[in-house]
Amino acid sequence: MKINISKISRCEGIKENFDIIDKNQYELLFNNQTFKTLPPLSVRGYAVNYEGKIEVDFETTATVELQCSRCIENYVADVHASSFHIFVKEGFQTDEDQQFYKGDEIDLTDIVLNEITAELPMKPLCTTDCKGLCPECGTNNNQRSCGCKAEEIDSRLQVLQKLLEDEQGGV
Predict the structure, then answer these.
(1) Using the 8-state DSSP alphabet, how is residue 150 labeled?
(2) Which of 104, 22, 15, 5 lies closest to 60 in space, CA to CA?
(3) What is the structure's pLDDT at 161?
(4) Three-state secondary structure of 26-42
(5) b/e per residue, 37-50, with b = 16+ CB within 10 A?
(6) Which of 11, 131, 133, 141 has the smallest C-beta neighbourhood within 10 Å, fewest atoms?
(7) Contact 3/18 with Cβ under 8 angstroms?
(8) pLDDT tens, 80-94?
(9) Burial (Cβ within 10 Å: 0-12, 13-18, ≥19) of residue 51
């Protein structure tokens, strides 16, 4: 995902729009899980030469295959991200917020993938009302009900449950 800046790098104030459609599939590592982008990935924006620096402002639209954190089924979600970066020619002094470029191209691939990753949910859910897996048998509760008895006892209260059982058994 490279943009050619040969025209704008020579003259200050020149602005050039770009529209990149990337048909590659990328793998993103996030939260110890690997996610895939599904083609096409769209990057639209502009680059402008301002005071010898190349300012790049763009929006990314991608489709990502995620795994639900409750039912572990794969699902597809659209991700949108906006980004603004300042680039300076390699060898010039830079601030912390600026990045280097060399030649007549700026490669946005790593930046775009980082922006997509930053937009991913911490706990991906296929739907907001996902029922997850049965803790007893592992059945996906979204597809069918397993009939397992769901007795959830807080581990801190198990001692009280045992006392209750002992009391009922001794009566």
Answers:
(1) -
(2) 22
(3) 76
(4) CEEEECCEEEEEEEEEE
(5) beeebbbebebbbe
(6) 11
(7) yes
(8) 999 999 998 876 666
(9) exposed
Q: Is the pLDDT of residue 171 over 60?
A: no
And the tokens for 138? 């592992």
Please name the residue ranges forming H helices in 5-156: 109-119
Q: What is d(CA 86, CA 116) in angstroms, rounded to the nearest whole number?
A: 19
Q: Which residue has 């409750």 as its token pair?
A: 70
Q: Look at the block and give the residue holding tokens 């603004």.
A: 84
Enter the tokens of residue 111: 């930046």
The residue-averaged pLDDT of 134-153 equals 84
**Structure tokens that stand for 127 in this block:** 């739907």
Secondary structure of the chain: what % helix, strand, coil (to 5)?
Answer: 15, 45, 40
| C-alpha 119, offset from chain centre | 4
Q: Could you tell me the residue ranges of all domains in the chain?
A: 2-119, 131-171
Strands 27-30 and 33-50 come out as antiparallel
Direct distance between the N- and C-terminal alpha carbons of the chain, in angstroms, rounded to an integer? 75
- Name the 3-class secondary structure at 111: helix
CA 76 to CA 67: how far, in whole Å? 9
